[in-house]
Amino acid sequence: MMDRLNAVQKTVFAIILAGMVMLVAIPLLFFITVSFSNSTEMTQFPKNIFPSGEVTVYVEPKDDGKYELFYDYQDGSGYTSIITTNNASKLEKHFARQYAVVMDGEEILEEFSRTRTEGAREFTFRKDMFYNFKQFFKIVPNAGVALKNSIIVSLYTILISLSLGSLAGYAIARYQFKGREQINVGLLIVRMFPTVGISIPMAVMLIKMGLYDTMIGLAFLYSIPNIALTSWITSSIFIGINKELEEASYVFGANSIQTFLKITLPMAFPAMAASSMYSFLTAWNDTISALILTNENQTLALVVYKAIGTTSSGIQYAAAGSIVLIIPALVFTFIIRKYIGQMWGGVEL
Amino acid sequence: MHKNMKKATPYLLLFPIFIYYAVFWLAPVASGIKEVFVGMDGDFTLTENLKLMFRSDLFSESVLNTAAFAAISVVLQYVIALVLALLLSRKFIGSRFLMFISMIPMAITPTATAILWKTGLVKDGWINSLLMGLHIIDNPIVFMNAEGFQAILLLIVIDTWTVTPSVMIILIAGLQGLQKELKEAAYTFGANKWQILKDITLPILRPSITTSVIMRMIAAVQVWSIAVMVLGYSKAPFLVERIAFYVDAIPGVDTSTKLAYTYSFLTTIVVLLATVIYLRVSGRNKIAAGGEDE
Amino acid sequence: MSYLEIKNLQKRYTAKGPLIVDNMNLSIEKGEFIVFLGPSGCGKTTTIRMISGLEEISGGDITVDGESIVNKLPRERGVSMIFQSYAVWPHMTVYDNIAYPLKLQKLPKDEIKKRVQAAAEATEIQGLLKRYPAQMSGGQRQRVAVSRAIVVEPRLFLMDEPLSNLDAKLRVSMRTELKRIHTKQGSTSIFVTHDQSEAMSMADRIVVMYKGKIEQIGTPMEVYQDSATRFVAEFIGTPPTNFFDASIVREGQEIYARGEGFDYKVPSSLHSALAGYAGKEIDMGIRPEYIDILPDQRKQDGYFCDARIDFVEPQGSHSILITEIGANKNVKIHTVDHMDIKQGTKVSCHVKNGMVMFFDKESSKRIK
To answer: Do C265 and C117 reside in the same domain of the chain?
Structure first.
């Protein structure tokens, strides 16, 4: 009775809901379309919200054996003349660059030759949907290496944070000792501490250690907040694991290491998985520290960041690159969504 | 187990992170602070670098912008998210789908978010396409020319798009997690919907909202990548944007390194202050609201 | 006309859903203490929530003092309620919790203060007024909830399983406390519980509910000794009533209830009621304390069967004996006279004072 809605309220509710979903979805949709757009579509205005899979051109045969190519920019002026040629390699390049249609030049000419008998007509070609993705890795120097680097630095970060963090988490959860409270507060401060603040002195230190511009050096920085975070998440889980379960294992003759490995660790696994994904996200998403701590060995996020500065004309390639960047981050965020509320101050999801 | 051994166990377990933080956190922090108080000539100085920072280009703008950005965006995001959460907190068909959609903006790598919006904000971008398609405007708007406060507003809008849906999810979770009987009790004792919201729901949720607001503030203070990627360096100066500027855009100059150090120091102080407030607030909440110790 | 009248009350959550409350009719007198008793899902909580105004009704009517309340808001109904979880607001002090309903009524400050003080004294929490709920025990929170409910001086005092979250000892002492407050305040009270001993000890009248329907309305003694249905006989009493499958056999002037392992001569007072059941199967119920055992295996009037005591559970004041009779392997006998009986003893069993109950197999209704 408290929460019953009438018809008007239901309508308003539905409108707000739809508006909310659209506000989030429309920018994403346009963005995805951009990442699949060819150069010609990028110059078109207004832009389409859905990606197209095909390109249509109009071809007119010319007397000198050449063909005149027309394209409709959808701006109301109809077909516009683009080029007149019978050069196969020129056509091949034009189709790839402008339309993301990857086809042998001779084959295109062969197709066009039909206009000799049938007269001027339209031709529709299938776009290579992953053209921008391929181009991103081709154009942007070291993008492939950067992808590998991003994975490596993420793995290092997970490894360091998990091994050190869960040990500390276990100690905090299971033992009463002097300075326990202070350690808790200390860990919170470290967790909140902006990594930017120590990136520059860290760079100096890593140069001395010979670890500058290496992934392990970068991982040392990313692990700083994540060790604290991991120990915080795991300690709350270890507290939750009934001590009697461990004691039962002692009773049946296991030693403490066996108990930890066989009983405690498996039960804490979900929390450890969640904190690993946090570590992953820190390493995967960061740009500023990578900017400071690396030179040649860049990460994918950094490469994408730099790509937008250099290739303002080919923003669709950067968009394709960022799609590659987004997917793992998106997947991992959804896996750990249950824990996100806790990160934000304790509300459970 | 031997008794002394047992006493030492927690310290043994904590030993690795002590070492880690001593080497990789404390040492850089200390040398970072040292750099701030060592002048260009290598001698100790209390204020030289700070003065250098105060006098540097766009210093006051970056401080003001950071403050304005953090304050306005967080307030805006929480107000919108709270209204949405109150409207949508009931259980309905498709609520899981809404959750799914709402999580996406926050889950996207910030670099990618910046590119997403850049493709929209350019003159022939999708925002103008959309607005003109819906006949809201007749001529494309040139967003990229935004300067000063307009630029900040633009970034606030982007940040709001990114963050608000997630804040809404958090608030919805809080609202749904609230024990139903607490509201029903107020209702049976004569409170109307508005009074229940004002006297019961919001005050009970206030502690967790406050702590999450501070967490958001800490993140908002460190804004930089959207600003640089969408508008470019120095168009919308922020504290961390200045650090990146001195490291990335004009590296190698002695003063830029000093300035980067000093800006890092300032950012750290700001964030630590926010952390202290967070600790005090969450500590107080534990006493006042408690309820978890059942 | 009674004070509170419930007429043909119905509840279903969806248009074609099942009836959660099925045509309920009930009259309650002013000042009565009524207990709704039944297993979870029987509709008792739904009913009290419909009375309070937290739940819409799907059919029927509820009147107080001759006036329908179904279209009124809770505050206009003059109800107050104690919830299962206490629903004490965690962000308010005890004082603010108790004062909030009065603040909603916009009473003057000094009157609020006076009434809060009085309500707090009634539950003996006047020393806790400045505390927050988080700093208090479950029992103390319960008292806050009670104070908050009585401070509004309600026409109807509704309690939804208010004691179920307390520990056993506190639960028993709170019963007495609530009864005392009820006696003092005299407000008409409805108390919901699934705990039959709670119901027995507190109620003026018990309303036993099962699957959305009222099984029996009566005083505690009536529902116990004169159960109207098999469900009531089974649900009320610890240990519960022992049931046997029996067939009614007429032999000359006598009627026998016979089954696997027993043969009972039915007292003549029940002859006319059982007249139509000759040759039919019925359910026979005997409460544990109405089975008498004789260790010397004598057969007296009311003889019923022979048995062997399988287990003895001493309770101090009495013992519970467990035995096997026919298909029923878990027959319980409450004994005061033979508390020290040894496990394995062979005995003869008798029905005390003809206290046997017969139930129709189909309708589950009592045959009497």
So the answer is: no
How many whole angstroms separate alpha carbon A197 and alpha carbon B239? 11
Residues of B in contact with A264 (CB under 8 A): none
Q: Which tokens sit at C108?
A: 């003057």
**A119-157: pLDDT as tens digits:** 889 899 999 999 999 988 888 878 899 999 999 999 999
Which structural domain range is residue A322 located in? Answer: 136-343
- Residues 230-249 (A) with a CB less than 8 A from some CB of B: 231
Per the CB < 8 A criterion, the answer to whether C283 and C230 are in contact is yes
SS (H, E, C) A20-45: HHHHHHHHHHHHHHHHCCCHHHHHCC
Close Cβ partners of C190 (under 8 Å, ≥ 6 residues apart)? C28, C34, C35, C36, C48, C51, C156, C157, C158, C159
Strands, sheet with C303-314, edge to edge from the N-terminal-most edge strand: C291-294, C346-351, C303-314, C319-325, C328-335
What's the total number of domains in chain C? Answer: 2
Is B120 in Cβ contact with A30 (below 8 Å)?
A: yes
Task: Check CB contact of C84 with chain B, cutoff 8 Å.
Answer: yes
pLDDT digits (tens, 9 = 90+) for B131-177: 988 888 888 888 888 888 999 999 999 999 999 988 888 888 888 88
Residues C228, C257 within the same domain = no
If asked whether residues C54 and C150 sit together in one domain, one would say yes
Among candidates B98, B102, B161 on the partner chain, residue whose Cβ is nearest the Cβ of A27: B161
Distance CA B214, CA B280 (A): 11
Query: From CA B162, how far away is CA B116, in angstroms rounded?
Result: 11
Return the axis-axis angle of helices C138-150 and C109-122, rounded to nearest 10°. 130
Does B189 sit within 8 Å of C101, measured CB to CB?
yes
User: A4 to chain C: which residues are within 8 Å by CB?
Assistant: 56
Give A346's DSSP letter.
S
Q: Tokens representing C292?
A: 């008498």
Q: What is the pLDDT of residue A348?
A: 38
Structural contact between residues A125 and A99, judged by C-beta atoms closer than 8 angstroms: yes
Q: Do A200 and B129 touch (CB under 8 A)?
A: no
Chain A interface mutation, best of B12, B17, B195, B257, highest count of A Cβ atoms under 10 Å: B17
In a shared domain, residues C199 and C305:
no
Do A329 and A233 belong to one domain?
A: yes
Hey, which residues does C214 pair with through a beta bridge? C209
| Whether residue C152 is found in the same domain as residue C279 | no
Whole-number Å distance between alpha carbons of A276 and A280: 6
Task: Identify the domain containing residue C263 by its residue range.
Answer: 242-367
The two structure tokens encoding residue C147: 């104070």
CA distances, B240 to each of A206, B63, B263 (Å): 21, 10, 7
| Contact call for C74 and B291, based on CB within 8 A | no
Superfamily name and number for B57-287: MetI-like (1.10.3720.10)
Last residue of a domain, one of A128, A162, A195: A128
- Helix (H) / strand (E) element for A253: namely none
Give the tokens for residue A198.
């120590």
Q: What ipTM was predicted for this assembly? A: 0.84
Distance CA C51, CA C191 (A): 12
Q: Which residues contact A82 (CB under 8 A, 6 or more apart)?
A: A57, A69, A70, A71, A94
